[in-house]
Write a structure and sequence with these properties.
Helix content is about 20%, strand content about 25%. By secondary structure, the protein is α/β, with parallel strands linked by helices. The strands form 7 sheets. Strands 1, 2, 5, 6, 7, 8 and 21 form a 7-stranded mixed beta sheet that branches. Helix 1 packs across helix 7. It starts with a strand and ends in a 14-residue tail after the last helix. The model has no long low-confidence stretch (mean pLDDT about 95).
Length: about 575
């Protein structure tokens, strides 16, 4: 047993993509850190997961536009670095690449940047000493101490439902046999409703007699919610086969019990409620399967690691409860990185590499500010030339990958001096964090990209053209939102959406159907009390305003909308 204590300012637990991304920033800036990894390679989770080896993170290399920052929007697997050779896009042209390639990439990344990783060191207990520093016991007997602890544990353990009797009879997604012959002409039930369930169904659908996905609630589609963790189209062929009556099915029963009725046969007892039937009641059924595979997700927190201190969690311990800057809400200086960052973001992409790489970059700068006294990076416009700023803003909205991937989560912040002649810009800060700060009587602008489909009654899949080009508050697809704050009062301006998610000047070169430059500047004038001496806009352009006669003609042949939502989908 080793009795000495090794001390570092920063300790990262886990050499997955989150851990080595933070390690990159710490190494590059000569910080005092170490990464403790329980296995013998970086990225070891991807040695076996996802089980069927196809990633759902896109690797789109060819995007017409030449700006490197823009192309990061469509590279969902690379970690941030200053070396272009260490991009995942250098490894394969496949749009949905094999997890084997990602596993190799993560190992190469850790070696290339010479990250300070101690392998085969499993952290067994975490507590705090009397000074508030963390003490980490490990499998080697070595004790480590740090001021700031960063947990990059990844998907820790499978989440196993506790409300299904006999759940132990199922086979886990994480280690179910991949030999396709085992499933030939067999009856397969799959518990779950996420990508792992549908990925498994896709894998088996060609050989199984039938595959039934047993979802506990209606399935959410990523193309509907715009949350990349919901069901992706690359995995949803089973829906097609279900609706075309090809024996496979997606069902929504309440599974109560799983029992073994013979050596090779399992049986479910499940129910469907009919509260709106002519005779309300519950339908109680049984069904036999040769295999039942549990695909019910992962937990992103391991409560067994903690001794004396107990970080709060939510959703039955699935996620750590964290602040907008990814710190435990009740254990100071404990931060979560990697996939666990989705603990405060279930709308954008914080649970995936293409999202949390930007969160980690931001967190690194926040840690520098807190623990090293190094101010968060900023840019000063002095004197403030509004045309220069607006040119910068349009380019920023058009190419930023961080605002694009973490829509409504990260924002750029422009803080104006009282005389409005100077401004300070802070980039890629958590919107919820910034909104908690007191700016006193200063004018502040928050810049984000956001969706607007929540304002509509119609499904997003039915939007096959631009949103209302006149009323930009009804922009549906991803679009810029500028919020103005002054003396506690907030107002916001929305740009129209753009086919290519660009708002370049001159407008139209990046997919925007109209220019909102004049309207935005008039709004800005009203908020700041300025006069830009704007020339009146020229009538005309690509939008033809209907005459009274054309409006009447339309109304004669089309029924009026009955939607109660504030915005109406274009026809």
């Amino acid at each position: 047993m080793k009795s000495d204590i090794k001390t570092f300012k920063y300790i990262i637990v886990g050499a997955g993509p989150g851990g080595i991304q933070m390690g990159y920033f710490l190494e590059k800036n000569n910080k005092d850190y170490i990464i403790l990894e329980k296995n013998d390679t970086a990225g070891s989770f991807f040695a076996t997961q996802p089980r069927h080896r196809k990633l759902i993170s896109i690797n789109k290399k060819y995007n017409s536009f030449t700006e490197d920052e823009f192309n990061w929007r469509h590279d969902w697997n690379s970690l941030l670095s200053d070396d272009p050779s260490m991009r995942f896009t250098c490894y394969t042209d496949e749009l949905f690449a094999s997890a084997d390639i990602l596993y190799q990439y993560l190992q190469d990344f850790a070696k290339h940047f010479n990250l300070n990783i101690s392998y085969n060191v499993a952290v067994t207990k975490i507590k705090k000493d009397s000074d508030g520093d963390f003490l980490l016991s490990t499998s080697t007997g070595q004790i480590y101490k740090c001021q700031c602890l960063l947990l990059g544990l990844g998907a820790v353990v499978p989440e196993i439902p506790d409300n299904i009797e006999g759940i132990e009879l199922t086979t886990g997604y994480e280690d179910h046999p991949l030999d396709i012959e085992l499933y030939r002409n067999k009856r397969v039930g799959i518990l779950g409703q996420g990508n792992s369930a549908f990925e498994t169904a896709e894998y088996l659908s060609g050989v199984a007699a039938f595959v039934h996905i047993l979802a506990k609630q209606p399935v959410k589609f990523a193309w509907e919610t715009h949350f990349v963790g919901d069901l992706r189209a690359v995995n949803n062929n089973i829906f097609d086969m279900y609706q075309l009556k090809s024996l496979h099915a997606v069902l929504n029963p309440r599974v109560k019990r799983i029992s073994k009725v013979s050596e090779n046969t399992l049986q479910t007892n499940h129910e469907y409620d009919y509260p709106n039937a002519s005779v309300p009641g519950t339908l109680k059924l049984t069904r036999e399967y040769d295999f039942i595979i549990r695909c019910t997700g992962w937990k992103w927190f391991n409560e067994e690691l903690f001794d004396e201190i107990k970080p709060q969690t939510w959703k039955r311990g699935k996620y750590p409860e964290i602040t907008p800057i990814w710190e435990s809400v009740n254990v100071s200086n404990l931060f979560f990185i990697g996939g666990a960052m989705q603990g405060n973001d279930r709308q954008a992409s914080s649970g995936f590499i293409h999202g949390f790489r930007y969160n980690i970059k931001t967190l690194f700068h926040l840690l520098e500010e807190k623990f090293e006294g190094i101010p968060y990076p900023r840019k000063t416009f002095e004197p403030l030339d509004w045309d220069e700023f607006l040119n910068w803003m349009y380019q920023r909205f058009s190419i930023s990958a961080a605002l694009f991937q973490l829509y409504g989560v990260l924002c750029d912040v422009l803080v104006l001096s009282e005389d409005l002649k100077q401004a300070t810009l802070y980039q890629e800060l958590p919107l919820k964090h910034i909104q908690q700060l007191d700016f006193k009587e200063q004018h502040v602008l928050f810049l984000t990209l956001e969706f607007g489909f929540h304002k509509f009654d119609e499904s997003s899949i039915t939007f096959l053209g631009p949103s209302d080009p006149v009323d930009t508050s009804c922009a549906a697809f991803l679009h810029p939102v500028i919020r103005h704050l002054h003396k506690g009062v907030t107002d916001e301006f929305h740009f129209g959406d753009s086919l290519l998610a660009r708002w370049d000047r001159p407008h139209g070169t990046g997919g925007a159907v109209m220019s909102y430059h004049y309207t935005f500047q008039k709004w800005l004038e009203s908020k700041l009390g300025l006069n830009f001496n704007l020339p009146e806009p020229v009538e005309g352009g690509s939008y033809h305003k209907w005459s009274e006669e054309e409006i009447a003609q339309w109304q004669q042949t089309h029924a009026a909308s009955t939607s109660s939502h504030p915005c109406k989908r274009p026809i």
